[in-house]
Amino acid sequence: MPESIKHCVEVITTITSEFPFRTFSILVRYGNKYALLLDCGPSIADKLFKLGISTVEINYVIISHQHGDHILGFPILTFARYAELNNLQQEKGSKRLQVIANQETVEQCLRITKEVFPGEADMFPVTYICITAPCSIKLDDFCTIEARNVMHTVPAIGVRLELSFSHGLFTIAFSGDTRPCESMIHLARNADLLIHDVFCEHTYHAVAEKWGHTTAYEAGILAQKAGVKQIMMINQWYKYRDQEALQKLEKEISEHFDGKVITPKDMSIFRF
């Protein structure tokens, strides 16, 4: 990657659920003023607070599907953002949070937010963008997203972020939870960074298939086939919490993928 493109994109990884699955929510900052959250796990607002990141900074949330470990942080995030805007006395209409998801996930967001905050939910400055994949959306001057349906146990999407700068393009593909599929190969084609579900070693492939996830072996093959530069593995089975176990996943990916394998930790910051 040319030196001039480095440090335009910041990827912040947070583990927002530890059991039974080690689930990540990913914050992507770009263009010096935009922040996009990929998935919204149970403890995301707390993790952002610990990182010193204001919820008001977040412009967009893309939620891959409606399962609790990816969505249960949404009501608290929107409430915290509403409270911060009030404290800052900012005009809420100009700071609306844009939420991008499929119909089932949008309906779930609305339902759980109204159940948790029945008197306040309608005041939260949120705009829902209900998508039908495959589709593409230009979010702002820097970011265009492409979404496709992936293979999980409920309707789910994967996305490709194309971040355009005057000196180059940086692409990120994000799987959420999925079995390996052609949609993710398409979204990940020649990506600078693939953030992908790596649930377990292939020894346990029957478990991965049952729960709609990808093994390390399968993720390595997919990354190689798509021609990505590097893969960041997320969303592991609870058996893979310590470093020794995670290294087994790294090794299995590397046996089938020539690029770099990244094992993120909680509240890690990567700059590209």
List keywords for this structure.
globular, seven-stranded mixed beta sheet, 15 strands, disordered N terminus, Metallo-beta-lactamase, Chain A, eight-stranded mixed beta sheet, alpha/beta, 272 residues
Please provide a written account of the structure.
By secondary structure, this protein is an alpha/beta fold. Helix content is 29%, strand content 32%.
Helix content: 25-40%
Quantity of strands, as a count: 15
The helix tally amounts to: 8
Spans of at least 5 consecutive residues whose pLDDT stays below 50 are 1-7
The class by helix and strand makeup works out as: alpha/beta
The appropriate CATH architecture is: 4-Layer Sandwich
Total of domains: 1
Q: Please report the first level of CATH classification, the CATH class.
A: Alpha Beta
Percentage beta strand: 25-35%
Task: Enter the CATH topology name.
Answer: Metallo-beta-lactamase, Chain A
Q: On the 0-100 scale, what is the average pLDDT?
A: 94
Order of helices and strands: EEEHEHHEHEEEEEHEHHEEHEE
**C-alpha Rg, in Å?**
18 Å
Quick overview of this protein structure:
The protein has 272 residues and is an alpha/beta fold. The protein has helices at residues 44-51, 68-71, 74-88, 103-116, 182-188, 205-211, 216-226, 243-254; strands at 9-17, 21-30, 34-38, 60-62, 97-102, 126-131, 135-138, 143-150, 156-165, 168-174, 193-197, 230-234, 236-237, 260-262, 268-271.
